[in-house]
Specification:
single chain; alpha/beta; Rossmann fold; 19 helices; 12 strands; 46% helix; hydrolase; protease; monoacylglycerol lipase activity; short-chain carboxylesterase activity; AB_hydrolase_1
Length: 510
Amino acid sequence: MRLLDALSAVLRPTESNDIGVPATLLVLLWLAIFAHVAVRLGLIGLYKLHYWCTARVPALTYQGNDIMLQIVRDCSLLRAPYHPTWYLFNGHLQTAMVAVEDAEPHVSYRRELFELSDGGVLSLDWVQTSSVTTNNEHNKPTILILHGLAGGSHEKYVRAGVVELVNHGWRVVVMNARGCGKTKLVTPKLFCAAYTQDVREVTAYLRKTHIPTSVLLGVGYSLGANILTKFVGEDGPTCQLTAAVAVGNPFCLTTASHHLMGSWLYRRTYNNIMTKNLIDVVFRQTNACEVFEDHPVVDLEHLRTATNLREYDDRFTRLVFGFDTVSDFYRQASSVHYIKHIAIPTLFVSAHDDPICVHQGIPYDDCAANPNVLLAVTHAGGHLGFYEGPARLPWSPAVVAEYCNAIYRLVAAGSLPAVVPAKAEDPATDDDMEVCSTASSSSATDDEAVVVRELPKRELSDPKLLDELTDAVTATLDDALDAVVEHATVDNLLVAGVATVAMYLFWRRK
């Protein structure tokens, strides 16, 4: 109180004590600068504290062979802490931010309609850059992107990935599934998590006409990640892709379905919203109503009243694709059964707090048993969110770009083939399937040097961690003197000066 009384006496002129305008302004100026710097220091301190509490290195699961070790060395982001945006503090908020409409980044596409062997049509959106030569270059390293449920090349997470890859020099093409991305439906068949023939035909087409011998990677998001994983596993050593990336893969549709039906909240939010999106595809976004009007087994009016994904799949998907029950469809569509057959380098990126593709479905053991698989699990990120830092920068696109660049360097060095000769071979069959489980019966042998990094935990009762926190707070205080000098720039002084004049005029008015 003595300090406050002294400042009050100095700043309040009286008949016996008229300090004068210049001295008063000087004192107020220093007080304003102090307040300005104090606010910034407080924000810096809070940011550092949040970083210490929330930034964690992703949990990596892989075998220590030469290829995987080199990939991990080249992917610096997988070895560095991922720091989620402070105000997106759980998986629900990260996921909700993905759904927020955003015009940026803008991507220009050139559409190519592709006719499938059964008469169906999908669209390939080729990313257009400022270089026409690059767009049309033959045998240029290319990345094929598969979108998520009822999505398309317009989705924000797709555009974010496209921009990052293009900035690294890649040619990118997005495959819009049947009926998606404003693609007209011509046959009574939409997309399906279990159906991989479309991506197989597109890959063969790209190899034949655009990328015969160069690097061709597949990148899938959410449902597209499941389809891509299943395709890569089905084709095994004959897969025509060089490598693959699956972001936000549900892995086991049975587990995901049980989770989304497990509580009233999930049924009314995620489950209900995704079901409405699928119904919109059938009844509003495409001409599916016309195509399925006389379908022998699909009842459109019954489909219109579906309130959850299981009802939608029971009334539509399983009937169109010939499955006896929804449970049978989910079992055969789950990509977890095909991980053991993957024969090309494949990266899985998942978030432990994903509210849709839940962590209970992540097949750690299956990934550890396959020498071609690298699994990265972050502690946060939601479903396809992975926003990082105060600027809300997307983390996963940068990770995907690093991985693709690492694959390209391996091919350039002769350590990895860009493409294997195509030959007929039976894909994985239903006999290979088991009930979905994260505790797979398959395990790696002792000489395979499996590397499994668990998600780190923070326990304040640990003296070592308490010492870390003390060091972090001390470092923040040590930055105070530097910050006073750093923030005493012209713009900050102007702000402080304006505040000082305003304070003085207000005080003199009294």
